[in-house]
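ERR on first pass: missing label on line 2. Operator R.T. fixed the label and resubmitted. Corrected input:
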Amino acid sequence: MDRTFDIVVADYLLGAVEMYWPHGADGMMDRLVGATKQGGYMMITGIEPYEFVLDRENNDDRLVLDIEAIGESAAFIAGESTYREVPESWVRRQLERYGFRVVASKQVRGGKERSDVLTATILNTRTAQACTSVQDAPSLPIAAIFLTHNPILFALRFAHRSSK
Amino acid sequence: MKRTHFVLDMALMSFRVLPEGGVSETQVTSNTKDVEEANEEEMDEDLSAEEPPLSPSSISLCRKKKDDDLFRFLRSTLKSEGFGASWGNVLDAGAGVSSMCFLLRGQVDSLIEVTADEEGTYGAKQLRRAVRVLDTVTIQTGNWRGENRRGSMGIDLRQC
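pass 2 clean. output:
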C-alpha cells in the first residue's frame, strides 16, 4: 500500500482486529501508520479493557468481569475469536515508536444500560437453560450450545458496539 | 434507566511528525501538553456547539445520527490543529455508520471506508447503499490482514 491520507481514522477498530486477525493489533498499527502521510493525523477511538476499569473487589464489577470471562472461555472452546480491546497506554506507546506525537486525548465514562438483561436472576436462569440444552442435545458441541442459548454473553460482548 | 456498569471510552488524536526539514501545511505547537491545556477551554465551548450540517448531498442514513462526545472532541481538535473547510483525503480504516457520518460532516475531498463484512450493521452493502449518491466516497471490503495470508481479504487502496 503506497497511498497515504491526510487523516486516518480507527474508530473502535483495534479491539475488533482480533476477530479477523488473531494477535494482529501491532500489524494493524503498521497498516494505519503506513496509510498516514507525513504531517498527517491519525484518530483512534476505543474502549479501555474492562480489567483496566472495573474493580474485582467490587461485587457489581466482579459480576461483569466473571460474565466476560465465561463468554471469552466459551468462545475460545468454540474456536471463535472475540474482541480484544487494547488500552490507551498501549496505543500511545505504539504511536511514539512510529514517530507520532499525541496532540490531544479524551476519556469518556459511559454507562451501559443493561439492567434489563444483566441481573443475577436472569444469569442463573440462562445458565440453567444452557445446561438443559446441553442435556437435550448431546450431539452438538457444548460451547456452541452455550453460546447459542446464552443471550447475556452476546449482550455483553456486543454492548459497546450497540451503544454507538 | 438504571446503569448496570460503566465503561471508559477514549479518543486520541496524533500527528505524524515530519522528517527533519519537512514542512507541514498544518501548524502544530511543539509542546503537546500546552496544546492540550490550551485547547481544553476552546473545546468545552465547541462541544456545546451545534453539529455542522452535512454536505449538500447529505445522505439520509446520517440525518438522524448524532456525533457522540468523542467525535465532537475530535472535530474540535482538528479545528484547533488548523483544519478548515476540508479535511482532505481521509481513510476510515474500520468503517461504521457513526464514523462515516462524522467524517461526511467534515467535508472531505475523498473518503475511503474499509469494512470487513459485506453484511450486517457495519457491512459494506448498507454503507454502499447509503453513499451511492456521493462520488467522493468509496466503500472497500477487507480485513487488513496480509495479502498473502491464506483466507485473507487483502486491501489495495491504490485501486480506490
